[in-house]
Design brief:
A: 261 residues, six-stranded mixed beta sheet, four-stranded antiparallel beta sheet, globular, B: alpha/beta, eight-stranded mixed beta sheet, 11 helices, 31% helix
């Protein structure tokens, strides 16, 4: 469904005389419908830049992005806008990705009315079914973002992403601002939505345990490059690259039973 | 100091903010060389506990009762002079955002030097020598470069090491680390936790490790206390808590964490339904009752007491009380 070949993004160096550097360095991968590719790497490794290049929120310097047979980099302005409906991002921080002055019904209604062209009654109906699908109820549509908890806000962000019936979701650290008990709710929601809608997903996180739980395949990114990519179980059990092994070694572990009491 | 004398003893500590109880009879004891984990989600009172110990409660907050003793000396109600010597002295502290705690316009060496002067009266060459020793101790081996650097010139991990050096400058008995690795990448976080572990053993520090993530600190502590809505709900040796949690919230928290839940990839985690309670939201009854799979009608009416289960273990849950 999504095929990325030799994707490359150069940035000018910072400050006078700063050397240009590759934020994303000749990265290639594929994601099938219904499949999740987990992207794991540390801050500054280029994982968010990569995700933005896929939607051309950041223009890649070179390389190819093909989505369902369409050459994404060749799209004109109008065609790009239409394309972006099919691919949606859920961001890390639901506190800053929702407009504080917009009530939830306006957040959700805007794409339904203006992009899909639904009338008022159809918008209302679709909005209620979206809220239900992400585990919220009708009363939440009358709330402002600050009246909701972090988990509820992330559910709104997911509902907004779903509103245009996308085929592909980029989840960029979707739970790193959430508490553990709420994180599990959002992860379960993403798994269920993927199954129900056959969504392809790029799941981005710095946490390899989290990525291993959510993904079919995992790509490990360091300094703009994929240092290793394989089936999730192979990465966890038979990592080849030393960097992957360090990430695995840094995972939280249960204390040993013989630890001193 | 003998390991039997607690370095820090908190007994039945309660705090309220404008009449709303935010800490409800929290107790903990910490011996030299011991690491105690204080775990819970947003708003559970873990940071409030740390602030109360240090006498740094926010405006409007009031101690409702209890005691905080440092090597037997009562800190609640102590004068500001005494507390100023304790903070950064006998009790060192590090926080989540080292970048926000370090002074952006003062070189690292001078900031640590200031602590050395304030708490140990070291100046000149003696201060310089001690500064270098501390930087080496926390793994900042390029001592010259680091001492001359401003905070923004260091990576997050190095900033946290500098914060730890500053905490060590006062020769602390107790080190309170409040979410020390939450802002760091997993690999760096693991190195910082290794460093804290090493310092605890080498210096015999009593370490209070506070985190929202049981998975991250569980393996680094001797004992853990799990908090929920301002109350300690379970205390247990860390080695036992993962396999034999006694409070339903602890068990649910473990089952909800992808790294330690032990469920197959891409299958649902056992999530905890509902939301975290707002502070002071629950008056009577157990604050976890509405999210608890074991809850019975009594749970929303009767506030559970602390039940001692066996040596070193306890939980605050009605299932351990008579007539449940």
């Amino acid at each position: 469904m999504l095929e990325v070949t030799e994707l490359h993004k150069m940035y000018r160096g910072r400050g006078p005389g700063g050397a240009p550097f590759a934020a994303v360095d000749r990265v290639s991968f594929r994601i099938q419908a219904g499949e999740t590719l987990g992207l794991v790497g540390e801050s500054g490794c280029g994982k968010s830049t990569l995700s933005r290049c896929l939607m051309r929120l950041v223009e890649p310097s070179s390389g190819q992005v093909t989505f369902d047979g369409v050459d994404v980099r060749a799209l004109g302005k109008r065609a790009l806008r239409a394309f972006r409906r099919r691919m949606q991002i859920v961001h890390q921080d639901p506190y800053s990705s929702l407009d504080p002055l917009l009530r939830i019904d306006r957040v959700l209604a805007a794409p339904l009315r203006h992009v899909l062209g639904l009338d008022a009654a159809a918008t209302e109906k679709r909005m209620l079914s979206l809220l239900e699908e992400v585990g919220l109820n009708a009363s939440h549509r009358l709330a402002y973002p600050h009246e909701l908890s972090g988990g509820q806000r992330q559910r709104v962000a997911i509902a907004r992403a779903l509103s245009l019936n996308p085929e592909f979701i980029i989840a960029d650290e979707p739970t790193s601002a959430l508490d553990v008990s709420i994180q599990a709710q959002v992860l379960n929601l993403l798994l269920r939505l993927q199954r129900d809608h056959g969504l392809a997903m790029l799941f981005i996180s710095h946490d390899i345990s989290l990525v291993a739980h959510m993904s079919d395949r995992i790509a490990v990114m360091q300094s703009g490059q994929f240092v290793e990519s394989a089936a999730a179980a192979d990465i966890v059990e038979r990592a080849q690259h030393p960097y992957t092994r360090t990430l695995l070694a840094a995972r939280p572990h249960r204390p040993q039973q013989h630890a001193k009491p | 100091m003998s390991a039997d004398v607690p370095a820090l003893n908190v007994d039945d500590l309660s705090v309220d903010i404008r009449g709303v109880t935010v800490l409800d009879h929290v107790s903990l004891a910490l011996s030299p060389g011991e690491a105690l984990g204080l775990v819970g989600e947003s708003g559970c009172g873990k940071s409030m506990t740390a602030l109360a110990i240090l006498g740094l409660l926010p405006r409007g907050a009031r101690i409702g009762g209890g005691s905080v003793r440092l090597r037997g000396q009562e800190l609640l109600g102590a004068s500001e002079d005494v507390l100023c010597k304790v903070r950064g002295g006998a009790i060192g502290m590090i926080f989540q955002e080292p970048g926000a705690c370090l002074d952006p316009v003062m070189r690292i060496g001078r900031q640590i030097g200031e602590s050395l002067r304030l708490h140990r009266g070291l100046t000149g060459a003696a201060q310089d020598a001690e500064l270098r020793k501390l930087l080496l101790e926390v793994g900042l081996n390029e001592t010259d470069r680091v001492a001359r650097a401003y905070a923004h010139e260091l990576s997050g991990g190095m900033q946290q090491r500098a914060m730890i050096a500053m905490a060590l400058a006062g020769e602390p008995v107790v080190l309170i680390a409040d979410e020390p690795t939450t802002a760091l990448d997993a690999r760096i976080a693991s190195q910082i936790l290794d460093l804290l572990d090493q310092l605890r053993r080498e210096r015999g520090l009593a370490l209070l490790l506070i985190s929202h993530d049981l998975a991250v600190i569980g393996g680094r502590c001797d004992r853990v206390i799990v908090m929920y809505a301002g109350r300690a709900v379970e205390a247990a040796p860390a080695a036992q808590v993962f396999t034999d949690a006694r409070h339903p919230y602890t068990a649910a928290l473990i089952a909800a964490s992808p790294g330690i839940a032990g469920v197959a990839p891409k299958t649902p985690l056992r999530d905890i339904p509902g939301q975290l309670p707002a502070p002071g939201g629950a008056s009577d009854g157990c604050a976890f009752a509405e999210r608890c799979t074991l809850a019975r009608p009594a749970c929303v009416k009767r506030t559970p007491r602390w039940s001692t289960l066996e040596t070193g273990r306890g939980a605050r849950c009605l299932q351990y009380e008579e007539g449940w």
